[in-house]
């Protein structure tokens, strides 16, 4: 009978060994499952934090978009308010003085009325041109057509043209440098920028020196960094819709130049641009032009 007891003991040993192995296997699987669960929990916590951060960023972006929309609506409202006033003013003058021109028999009065109508026609045309330029800049279709021209001669022409629009009390002084300057730029756009500078200064009824410097009322320091923004006006009572300087800035930057302003309150302002050009020497003895490097 002893061998039966031995077999029974062996059987118990085998059974015990099997259960020990199974226990270890299940324990390893349980540890693995717990580890995976812990990793899953950590991952879910991380995703939750990222989700919270994403929601915060979306909320910030939503608020920013709302503010941008409100700002755009304000700009639209300001634009419509300014443009309606600026269009109505020259149109009223054109219609009113056209009727007076028809009824008047006096030659001097008719000439005066015709000059007023012509000046308001030019104002209206410039307004339309500014709006079209603004639309071109917004759409990225503002094209520059470069040509060679004398910058000093252009300044003299602009000064004569602008001086004819103002009263005799206003004097435009052109300081010509010793050397003439030969420019490879868009002549029409440079003319537009300088004319706007001059007329912007003449609105203040001040003497002006091109680059452009005026002796007007000046611009407050808190508005200096905004004068080139759209629909910004240093004086809301002065004619204009506040896009001229913004258009000038876009034109000058497309030409590879820069633009700026210096001003002192009650002393005057100086608007300036810097554009690529080449100085030349004009010989008085020979009718020829030499480019300088």
Description:
The protein is α+β, with helices and mostly antiparallel strands. The chain contains 5 helices and 9 strands. It has helices spanning 2-103, 107-139, 151-163, 187-202, 244-254, and strands at residues 147-150, 172-173, 180-185, 208-209, 213-214, 258-264, 268-274, 278-282, 289-291. The strands form 2 sheets. It has a 5-stranded mixed beta sheet with strand order 2-4-5-7-6. Helix 4 runs antiparallel to helix 5. The longest helix is centred in the N-terminal third of the chain and has 102 residues, at 2-103. The radius of gyration is 39 Å and the shape is elongated. The protein starts with a helix and ends with a strand.
- Rounded mean pLDDT is 77
What is the structural class?
A: alpha+beta
**Helix content bin:** 55-70%
Order of helices and strands: HHEHEEHEEHEEEE
> Shape, please?
elongated
Proportion in β-strands: 5-15%
Distance between the termini: 123 Å
Largest sheet: 5 strands, mixed
Strand line-up across the major sheet: 2-4-5-7-6
Spans of at least 5 consecutive residues with low confidence? 205-210, 279-293
The number of helical segments is 5
